[in-house]
């Protein structure tokens, strides 16, 4: 039985894989950013509960909430677009190379065994 070997992706295909990977990495960075903002928001809320209920503190809580919500909505759209691009790229690569997997670090296509 012949073993199928990995094939080097064409430059444009490799670039497209890298674009998707970069988008996924950016989404991960945004998750972390939102997480940090939630921690800061929680601190402000705890200050408010503890009696430091100034107008400035309440305004800051409102601003954090708004910013987190805007960022979440933008991130959801970005992730949805990335998922669509990823599916389209996968279909395109499967047409070109057949069934298999991509190694984005090496820029190679690994065919599925027969």
Can you tag this structure with a few keywords?
mainly alpha, three-stranded antiparallel β-sheet, 72% helix
Would you kindly provide a written description of the structure presented here, covering whatever features stand out?
The mean pLDDT is 90. The protein has a 3-stranded antiparallel β-sheet with strand order 1-3-2, with no helix packed on it. Helix 1 (11-49) runs antiparallel to helix 2 (55-97). The longest helix has 43 residues, at 55-97. The chain has 2 helices and 3 strands. The chain is mostly helical.
* Helix fraction bin: over 70%
Walk across the major sheet and give the strand order.
1-3-2
Distance between the ends: 9 Å
The string of secondary-structure elements, in order, is: EHHEE
Q: Please tell me how large the radius of gyration is.
A: 22 Å
Counted beta strands: 3
**What class, by secondary structure content?**
mainly alpha
Concise account of the structure shown:
By secondary structure, this protein is mainly alpha-helical. It has 2 helices and 3 strands. The termini are close together.
Q: How is this fold's topology laid out?
A:
Blueprint: E1 7-8, H1 11-49, H2 55-97, E2 100-103, E3 108-111
Antiparallel strand pairs: 1-3, 2-3
Helix pairs in contact: 1-2
